[in-house]
Amino acid sequence: MGKLKVAVVGAGLGGLCLAQGLHRAGIEVTVYERDAALHTRPQGYRLHVDARAGVALRDCLPPELFELFLATCGQPGRGFTVVSERLRLLHEVRTDPATDPYAPQTLSTSVNRQTLREVLAGRIEHRISYRSELTRYQVREAGVRLHFADGRQADADLLVGADGVNSAVRRQYLPHARVLDTGGRCIYGRTPLTPAADRLLPAPLRDGFMAVVGGRIGMATGLVRFRQPPEQLAPALSPTADYLMWAVTGDGELFGLPDDRLSALPPAELHALAQRLTSSFHPDLRQLVALAAVPETFLARIRTSEPVPAWQPSRVTLLGDAIHAMSPARGSGANTALRDAALLCRTLVAALAEDRDLVTAVGGYEAEMREYGFAAVAASREAEAAMGARRGGPASWLFRRLGGRALER
Ligand SMILES: Cc1cc2nc3c(=O)[nH]c(=O)nc-3n(C[C@H](O)[C@H](O)[C@H](O)COP(=O)(O)OP(=O)(O)OC[C@H]3O[C@@H](n4cnc5c(N)ncnc54)[C@H](O)[C@@H]3O)c2cc1C
């Protein structure tokens, strides 16, 4: 294969992780990101990270950045609890206390998304080209030409579309691939863990992830309590304090507004809507929502991709949400994107070392990625449906049937 020049479109979690791995292996890589900087758009929510992320980050990051990632993770929870809107315990799953929540193979904790992105950009800032919105590409005889919104062009041997759920690369490359709107909507908020908020935390929430079910509106809640404030660990990391992430979830129809108006609501009105939707919840939960950092409230529409039949590999490929976007109900999208990044990196490095054909190597990556990627999409969709069924009525049988697995995170 000789020398290789890789263009990654999208400086999200998957794109940056891939760039780290390739850079570490001495492969020339440039990341093209449409935003002006990593913090241009609010990123303020918690991500659950599991073994897929642990192993991928260990394999791609230089050791000191992997250590920084672990140090900036949140304190681990000890389980997952389902409660009613009046905080009655409905179901509980405990994690095995013998497993190490910070070991790559058994990782199970939270990270602040923006902090993780900053860690992932560490030492490769010079490889990221901001304000570079890809509009289209052209496959040429021995490479790919990228075209950007401002008229610039760039050439590479391989183009990796890591440009998220609305991927421009996917739209051109696999125009038949479909991303469906499940109709589910989430209002996400962040409540700083002031002493007043801390006092209100229900016991199960102190101990791990907590889902509130009962009526037709549900709420997912999780803490990020840093082991040490990120900015104390590395001055380049943005200051971030402990917080509670909450997400008020339900079918969009229950939010009482046509979708275009809902999508246009400013944070303060979204926050007020979240308060109205949870007005029958336990007073402590209501108060936790009331104490939120209101300007950070945002709406997420829940989307899911349909499995795409195998395609002919080429010098263009995809990873993460760009190919297998999924509902956040299982906390799996970022973990799968990171897994893709590590697999693609490993595949390219091995092909280069053994002087194997690039396109065949890409095909090998894609075959494996489609398998586990769309399995993760299906599992996430099932988890979302299970939550919906629980919200729809007295579905305690479902708790027993699923044994908590569908919602475990
Ligand atoms: C509210 C919410 C909560 C979630 N919680 C979890 C969780 O707990 N655990 C978990 O594993 N997953 C979670 N997910 C899913 C997770 O956020 C995504 O799966 C993950 O971010 C996908 O990573 P990615 O690198 O594929 O894409 P992204 O992180 O979306 O990155 C795409 C990047 O591409 C850039 N871009 C887009 N178009 C272009 C273009 N044309 N040119 C150049 N750049 C472009 C974007 O600006 C962005 O930086 C959650 C998702 C949501 C919405």
Tell me what you see in this structure.
By secondary structure, the protein is an alpha/beta fold. The chain has one domain: 3-Layer(bba) Sandwich (FAD/NAD(P)-binding domain). It has 15 helices and 17 strands. The strands form 4 sheets. It has a 7-stranded mixed beta sheet, sandwiched between helices. The radius of gyration is 21 Å and the shape is globular. Residues 392-409 have low confidence and may be disordered. Bound molecules: flavin-adenine dinucleotide. Flavin-adenine dinucleotide binds at residues 9-15, 32-35, 45, 47-48, 132-134, 162-164, 168, 188, 300, 320-322, 328, 331-335, 337.
CATH first level: Alpha Beta
* CATH topology call: FAD/NAD(P)-binding domain
Q: What gap, in angstroms, lies between the N and C termini? A: 41 Å
Sheet/helix structural class: alpha/beta
**Share of helical residues:** 25-40%
Mean pLDDT: 92
CATH superfamily: FAD/NAD(P)-binding domain
- Given as residue ranges, the uncertain stretches (5+ residues, pLDDT < 50) are 392-409
The kinds of small molecule bound in this structure are: flavin-adenine dinucleotide
Quaternary structure state of the chains depicted: single chain
The CATH architecture can be named as: 3-Layer(bba) Sandwich
Count of DSSP H/I helices: 15
Q: Largest sheet at a glance?
A: 7 strands, mixed
**Count of the domains:** 1
What is the molecular shape?
globular
